[in-house]
Specification:
The protein is an alpha+beta fold. The chain contains two helices and eleven strands, in the order αβββββββββββα. The longest helix has 16 residues.
Length: 173
């Protein structure tokens, strides 16, 4: 054996034996317990989005007539992201006025509203809403930045006139 190899062998054995101090060490008899990390806080809710602002969203629901705007009383106005609990309803008063206090994520996403009353419908040409807002009849959206006024137009549904009586119907009477 050459001198450098013998030197490495002596150093290696010396280091290995130095670790043995003759004290008795117990061998593990069971696996070590698994260290669990502390529970992480749950992620914030994605609905409602953002924060509840103090903004007020209000307006008038009306019918456009030849003589001007006529307020519509008793319209159910629904706001998807209004109020502390969201999914909030307001009903128009005799002046057609509705109001919501507190809007979630005001100024970041459009706020969707729905307005409905028996015998009334949306005017033609109403623009669609932006996803993820719900599509369909009655829905509108508004960007709420601070206190916001948003008026809503509805049109009276034209119901077919009753059929005039036939001459044979009149003769049967």
């Amino acid at each position: 054996m050459t001198r450098p190899r013998a030197g490495f062998l002596i150093v290696g054995l010396t280091a290995g034996l130095a670790a043995c101090d003759g004290a008795s060490r117990e061998s593990p008899t069971a696996p070590s317990p698994i260290q669990q990390s502390p529970p992480q806080p749950s992620s914030p809710s994605v609905f409602p989005p953002g924060v509840l602002s103090a903004a007020t969203l209000s307006g008038t629901v009306f019918e456009a007539t030849a003589t001007g705007r006529v307020p519509i009383e008793g319209v159910a106005v629904y706001c998807e992201l209004c109020g502390a609990g969201t999914h909030t309803w307001s009903f128009t008063d005799s002046s057609g006025f509705y109001t919501f206090t507190g809007v979630w994520n005001a100024g970041v996403l459009p706020t969707s509203l729905s307005a409905s009353k028996s015998d009334y419908a949306d005017p033609p040409g109403l623009p669609g809403v932006t996803p993820p807002n719900p599509p369909g009849p009655g829905w509108r959206e508004v960007m709420v930045i601070g206190d916001t006024s948003f008026n809503i137009e509805l049109v009276k549904e034209m119901k077919p006139s009753p059929r005039p009586p036939e001459i044979t119907d009149l003769l049967r009477q």
